Amino acid sequence: MTEIEIPQFYACPISLQIMKDPVTTVTGITYDRESIEYWLLKAKDCTCPITKQPLPRNAEFLTPNHTLRRLIQAWCSANEANGVDQIPTPKSPLSNANVEKLVKDLEVSPRFQSAMEKLHNLAVENERNRRCMASAGVAEAMVHVITKSFTQGKTTSCVEEALRILRLLWSSANVVDNNHMKRLVCQNFDFLNSLTWVLQLQTKNNLKVINEALPILKLTIEAKDSTPLGNLGFEFFRVVVNVMKNRELSQQAVKSALHVLIETCPLGRNRTKIVEAGAVEELVELALENPEKNLTELVFILLAHLCSCADGRDQFLQHAAGIAVVSKRILRVSPTTDDRALHIFSLISKFSASNEVVQEMLRVGAVSKLCMVLQADCASHLKEKAREIEIPQFYACPISLQIMKDPVTTVTGITYDRESIEYWLLKAKDCTCPITKQPLPRNAEFLTPNHTLRRLIQAWCSANEANGVDQIPTPKSPLSNANVEKLVKDLEVSPRFQSAMEKLHNLAVENERNRRCMASAGVAEAMVHVITKSFTQGKTTSCVEEALRILRLLWSSANVVDNNHMKRLVCQNFDFLNSLTWVLQLQTKNNLKVINEALPILKLTIEAKDSTPLGNLGFEFFRVVVNVMKNRELSQQAVKSALHVLIETCPLGRNRTKIVEAGAVEELVELALENPEKNLTELVFILLAHLCSCADGRDQFLQHAAGIAVVSKRILRVSPTTDDRALHIFSLISKFSASNEVVQEMLRVGAVSKLCMVLQADCASHLKEKARGVLRLHSKTWNNSPCIQVYLLTRFRR
């Protein structure tokens, strides 16, 4: 590929892109027009980015640099064959005179449509145009067009165009002075009525018109004084609520409608009018669709407003899903949603708490959610609101606050649900009763089933079945060691083997209590034996997959198996690692399922093994693991496990060289190109950094056409860990493998630009130091690049 040497100073110091419309400031520095105008608009201190001298904010003081623009265009033309795009001659900036002429054309019927189209195209083009249009009176002209159409009752396409232009002018950052716009809509009394009329139009592009009108209506309501808003008629609210029923509206339009109702709700008798317009039912329906966070917050804010009046609460309680949907969103969306949801429940509990309502709150889990708020790490005022709501006394476990399905009594005399207290005994550092704080034996055998209480709870559930209370089945007896040991012995008898495996799998899947019992009864040892026996006999049977699944459930489940016991188990069994390698090569009907089960076990085995045997692993082991990773149908967990295996073994002995020889580098680059999720990307880059620390690894990396490009692309896009490893890779390449082709490739694919961006970004100082080190190594080569000239000229020139 032909190397392109980019001349100095053809790039804008702000955007680091080749300048399309170079302009020179009063400080003598040249920038791209769009970049410097945006800088002047946004900067708090209006200074030159390079010299730090003060600059006038007005864009009229920017002088077009035609000479430099022609030089850039000539260079682009000369390099067109090398893939450099042509840069067209930029248009002259829009002037007030041009805009005022178009505004006058709106008064002449034959020119009206053409003028509207031109104004719309100018507004869409860029922010500079919108600022010019705002100062030339286009906003006033668009308001006039809309109100004129309303007073004449004419439904024309110009209304949609006028709304779109007005929204672009009003919504665009810093384009229109808010006070000017406020005066404009406040002085025009027909404008609000015009927007209401627009929302009712039955036109071909009705949906587009409404999507444009609602954001304008929101801004108008925010600009209006409270007095006229308190006198809005019922028809206004009916129209807004009806519009919200259209599920094809854009998210922005729905949010705008909600903002309109929230702003107007507290004024005058508006709350009652909004309720009469059917807003409560519509809000519940909207919440049922599980919208995104900001929209959910707006729904709950408005719903809390409307439930503060009796009619609003009645409408809310008449909806079958009202209480359920509010309960479901607590602790799931945001503190704002939690606050408004608890406020709704507080209002209902104080003023509308009939027996049916209280039973409904219990049935749909609202009571449980309120109890969870008291336990959760949330604001104290939320917990206070939850406490204010009167919770009936029922058969609830003191730990989970749910109705007990299998009540058991501890030696302290307190009754809990079996699952909750067993988990408490497993996890608690100090094994004490949660209520009395007296010591408890950790063994679950000291828990006595409370059959009397369980029958009372079942009877209560049956009596309240009509109110939607679910029946509680009689719990199974807990699994005993004797039962499990019998199944383990059955594994030694061929006719019973398959049945015993299925039963063990079903027990392991059922719950964590079973897995703890199975672990203590020696099931893990039995599964290891099944796998190694299949390996030594060379038999590929379905039992291998089942044994792997059971072993993974026992080993992966929290606190089920003592890690030291499991470590001893796999360390003493020398054939187990070879067995897993053999499993990964099996060509069976369920090959993919077997590999998905085997890789997590292999990861746990490698983590348990001592470093000495791991340093002596053969090349075949790594070849198998790398080959398995090439299967793109593997589960994410399996791929992560394979990467963990390679990362754990890489630093030991000559493993790094063996992994490289197995083709891992190419596979890692291919994996990174698929843009995997964050944790997987981090693992890829950690392993890639390990492998690039040897010469063969760097050679393989540089031989891949996308190697440098993909590493560059992920910097500042994934996580600090990925950034650190990516910069480490570039540091190794720059120090030990920096041929002229490599250095030019880093420039071509944007790696140099990314290193410069690291210096500007808000990231850790050690990352910036790594980036600075790479830039200094090849500053002479990259000095002519427009992507890096600012940095080399100001920081790295030696």
UniProtKB/TrEMBL annotation:
Q: Give the matching SUPFAM superfamilies.
A: ARM repeat (SSF48371), RING/U-box (SSF57850)
Q: SMART domains this protein is in?
A: ARM, Ubox
The keyword Kinase belongs to this UniProt entry's keyword annotation = no
The metabolic or biological pathway listed in the UniProt record of this protein is:
Protein modification; protein ubiquitination
Q: Which UniProt keywords apply?
A: Repeat, Transferase, Ubl conjugation pathway
Q: What is its EC number?
A: 2.3.2.27
Signal peptide start and end residues:
none
The yes or no answer to whether the keyword Repeat is present is yes
Residue intervals of the U-box domain: 5-82, 390-467
GO BP: protein ubiquitination
The record's GO molecular-function terms, alphabetically, read: ubiquitin protein ligase activity
Q: Which Pfam families match?
A: ARM_PUB, U-box
Query: What domain of life does the UniProt record list for this protein's source?
Result: Eukaryota
What chemistry does it catalyse, as a reaction equation?
Answer: S-ubiquitinyl-[E2 ubiquitin-conjugating enzyme]-L-cysteine + [acceptor protein]-L-lysine = [E2 ubiquitin-conjugating enzyme]-L-cysteine + N(6)-ubiquitinyl-[acceptor protein]-L-lysine
InterPro entries documented for this protein: ARM-like, ARM-type_fold, ARM_PUB, Armadillo, PUB22/23/24-like, RING-Ubox_PUB, Ubox_domain, Znf_RING/FYVE/PHD
Q: Function, please?
A: Functions as an E3 ubiquitin ligase.
Q: What is this protein called?
A: U-box domain-containing protein
